[in-house]
Amino acid sequence: MHHPLSLLIAASAVATSLAFLSPPSSLQETLHSSSEIDLSALQNGDKGAELYAQWCASCHGLNGRDFIQRTWKLGSQQADIERIIRNGYALLGMPAYGQLFSPDEIKDLSNYLLAKAGESPNFRASPPQLIQASDLQLRANVIASNLGTPWGMDFLNDSTLFFTEREGRLWVMKSGVKQAIAGIPDDIHVKGQGGLLDVMVWNDDAQRRPWIYLTYSKNHPDDIKLSATAVVRGELLVTDEGFSVPHWETLMVAGPYAKTHRHYGSRLAMGQDGMLYVTCGERGMRDVHPQTLTTAPGKVHRLHPDGSVPNDNPFVDEPGAIASIWSWGHRNPQGMFVHPETGEVWTHEHGPKGGDEINILQKSANYGWPEITFGRNYSGTIITRDTAKTGMEQPLHYWLPSIGACGMDIVLGRGWPRSWQNNLLVGSLSFEYLERLVIDASGRVTDREQLLNGVGRVRDIARNSNGDIYVAVEGAGTIFHLEPILEN
Ligand code: HEC
């Protein structure tokens, strides 16, 4: 067996970086050097136990303790355990040992862990949740659980995920350790559809500084019955104590404030033009906001990263218009991503009964709500018979019946088979599944498939730079990593 020094360092570096983030107590108790272990006391010939003591005990506890009463996240069948030892799992903080150990040594280790797990009388080896799509099998790895309403997610890098809970909590998970970011705005209106909503990480390459952007429903300063969608940002500091955002500045309040607790939007994305895009819902006031340029709700806004208004925005010279408006006539857009190849800004919005729609945003375009729609009132009565008008855009796709669309991203990257490249993934709140949409070269939706049926209200979808897909589900309170199974 060869133990290249570089790998030794890599594993201990992970262990040290875990330490400063005050790991959960089970890990904390076991974060001591494996040199304390008396190797001679081990049963002679128990290769798995020896390897474990030397390489794993520092994080997972002596004598396989972590695995005796474990809630397994990534599957507990032999093949799952071997895969994890081989490949590691960066976001959870598990190093990869595929370069270090031979297949036989990995088998010895997995046998040892299974023997330990078997000491719990109720242990039954089981795979992670598997999803059968028409042309692919996927694993749904559990990254975080016991959450309230996870609403937004974004990656700082492949081992560091930021996410919100609508109840008013901002989290960062780095190498398996979850840390709350303290000191977020204290005027969050947690009611109805309101609360802490989206999070976006933006690396300011020029300044070499990472920023955290948030959207939330903000209390009116003098009357907490009123709220409005707001955007704030703060510089992210990374120190030995962990992550912090010492100061938040408000970039936008999408006034006027209103009494309703619905249709806040609000997704954030950084365009390839270096501009920040923000979606704002019409606050349930369809006859007031979407068709005027004088108010902020029911619009998508475009700002410089510091919140100032770009002078090439479409309505900067229009008297009375809100200068940050990029597009209008929106209902409640809760999904947005920037296409990595074309730079297009894709959104979807939650329609009334029927009429959820996907749009590719065009400068100054009016998406028609409520003058034209494929939807009806929830009571079934007619909103308008018009589905088209001059000067108003047609959606790329609409859903009838409406799925309650929330969250959207595109599948791209080497980890995915060709039939999945450029597919969209969209969450369904109403029917509690993840929808896959196949789009042909001309931009038409040619196929739809339901995944994760019955999982819970799917809130958000995020992609890291590897193309890995993460799905946040409310109700289940879980974040899943969807991993295509391409072996064999
Ligand atoms: C630097 C610390 C560290 C070391 C060293 C380490 N692990 Fe892990 N390992 C983790 C963390 C953190 C997780 C994720 C645990 C979680 O999120 O509950 C993990 C997860 C796992 C899992 C998946 C468990 C599941 O719930 O599905 C297996 C299997 C595993 N480790 C085996 C090993 C083996 C075998 C070794 C030694 C060769 C080892 N680990 C060494 C930190 C470590």
Which regions contain 5 or more consecutive residues with pLDDT less than 50? Answer: 1-41
Q: In DSSP terms, counting alpha (H) and pi (I) runs of 4 or more, how many helices?
A: 7
Strand tally is 27
Which CATH C-level class of the largest domain is it? Answer: Mainly Beta
What gyration radius follows from the Cα positions, in whole Å? 25 Å
CATH homologous superfamily caption of the largest domain: TolB, C-terminal domain
> How many independent structural domains?
2
Give the biggest beta sheet: 5 strands, antiparallel
Give the CATH topology of the largest domain.
Neuraminidase
List keywords for this structure.
488 residues, mainly beta, Cytochrome Bc1 Complex, Chain D, domain 2, Neuraminidase, 2 domains, 5-stranded antiparallel β-sheet, 7 helices, globular, binds heme C
Task: Provide an overview of this structure.
The chain is mainly β. The protein has two domains: 5-127, Orthogonal Bundle (Cytochrome Bc1 Complex, Chain D, domain 2), CATH 1.10.760; 136-484, 6 Propeller (Neuraminidase). Helices cover 13% and strands 33% of the residues. It has seven helices and 27 strands. It has helices at 5-19, 25-30, 47-55, 57-60, 65-68, 78-87, 103-117, and strands spanning 129-133, 136-144, 150-157, 160-165, 169-174, 177-180, 196-204, 209-219, 227-235, 237-239, 242-244, 249-253, 268-270, 276-280, 299-303, 325-328, 332-338, 345-350, 356-360, 397-399, 405-410, 424-428, 433-439, 445-451, 457-463, 469-474, 478-484. A five-stranded antiparallel sheet has the order 1-2-27-26-25, with no helix packed on it. It has a four-stranded antiparallel sheet with strand order 3-4-5-6, with no helix packed on it. Strands 7-8-9-12 form a four-stranded antiparallel sheet, with no helix packed on it. A hairpin with a 3-residue loop joins strand 4 and strand 5 (169-174). Helix 3 (47-55) packs across helix 7 (103-117) and helix 6 (78-87) crosses helix 7. The radius of gyration is 25 Å and the shape is globular. Heme C binds at residues 11, 14-15, 55-56, 58-60, 72-74, 81, 84-85, 92-95, 97, 109, 113, 176.
